[in-house]
Amino acid sequence: MAILGPIIKAALNIHEYFTHVDDHHKAQQRVLKELLEKATKTEFGKEYNFKEILKDKDMHEAFDNAIPYHDYHSMEEKWWSRLKNGEKDITWPGMPSYMARSSGTTGKKSKMIPVTDDMLDAISAAGTRQVSALTNFDLDADVFEKEALALGSSTRLEEVNGFKVGEISGIAASNIPEFLESKYRPGADIAAIDDWDKKVQTIAEKSADWDIAMISGIPSWLELMLKKVMEYHKVDSIHDVWPSLSVYTTGGVAFEPYRDSFEALFKKPVAIVDTYLASEGFIACQQRPESTAMQLITDGGIYFEFVPFKPEYILEDGSLRQDVVALDISQVEPDVDYVLIISTVGGAWRYLIGDTIAFTDVNHAEIKITGRTKFFLNVVGSQLSVLKMETALGELQEKYNTSIKEFTVYASKIDGEFHHKWFLETETETNEEDLADALDQKLQEANKNYSVARSKALKGVKVTKVPEGFFNQWNAHQKKMGGQVKMAKVLSDDKQEEWEAFVKEELGQ
């Protein structure tokens, strides 16, 4: 009989009660004030006169007027490069010990984002908030005394110019509190393995020794790991190895395309809980079972601003026009796409993280990620967000009773005219022409701008089917294997030629 589980669940329930945020606007006002106060004497704070902003009756408006929007390149060029040259007190007090190497899908080079002690504390607090919120779900108390497995990047951090460098999941895992280490799997030694295949094989070999109740990781990589564990033990369900498994914390990409294949691995109910952890901080997590949306962590060291996602506001490189006005959380509306802007305890200021979001419930500050500013396919005015693409593909899955877990798309000229070229990872026997026609129709029905573009300059849709695992092969070809790697939904111009050569070689076209 479980004794410790009910005690832990009760303690988490108390923590959830006392840390629950009712007024998100007030929480955000406090965060902005705290950020400005703490960074007043930094070089950034002096340049933009944080002292004067703090005196203003409307701090948000003063903040908006005083400080320009930044993307990674503008922060790096003028500010973060100074940290890397040994200067301190640049955008946040002191000198960070860590740099997070972004594993994102855009850009030719990895980004190196400062990770301060305050940011690590904020991530830890948000993680505790996420676990506390699990008490809102229908879980047995004994789940809370069992083990949790996190499949992230390696915790073996590099030393670069005095900084410890790695992906954010690896940095966070390397800072797990001692009292949690006994429950954390795969454990420090396995988590430090760099080679993806070796790490997964080692997890499979050790898996029978663990009593896993919670798992977390990006769906594509976690599914491969679970299948490897099942293959190693020659079983039909992951519950034959981990009978206590009750919670899967997902994130990084949309889960819905993976739902059917994941549920095929389970023979017991597993709660799916969504999270939003970026290299720049822990942004949101699902808080209640009646909603699949995630609640912004409005009291966790991040100040959020929102710019309506309109094509005329976005420059060609995906950055924002400086003259557009940002809204605070009290000014947003549901079901509107916004460019997400953050200012953080990591020393990022009015920072364009690159994601677009929409509020599903303003009162609860609950959001869905709708796409990327650079993944907004707007050649010849088609104005396709990733969310609209995923919605159309979901309808395609239902129509043809198939699974489409991964995809990529880009605009390309064929015989001098623009077409959208789609590559779908699917085992369906439906031919490519029928898939293209159905996808085209779904997008026209859901998106007026796309329909207009199709009647004018966008002449057609091409679909190429690729087999299961094809995108993992591409990632391996790109030397990107691991728990945080994501496939670009809209392939950048500089990758299209290499991609087409890869497809031709692998498919024998």
Automatic annotation (TrEMBL):
InterPro entries per the UniProt record, alphabetical: ANL_N_sf, GH3, GH3_C, GH3_M
Residue ranges annotated for the GH3 C-terminal domain, each copy included: 390-493
Keyword set includes Coiled coil: yes
Keyword Coiled coil included in the entry's annotation: yes
Pfam families associated with the record: GH3, GH3_C, GH3_M
Molecular function per GO: acid-amino acid ligase activity
Protein name as it appears in the record: Putative auxin-regulated protein
Organism of derivation: Nonlabens marinus S1-08
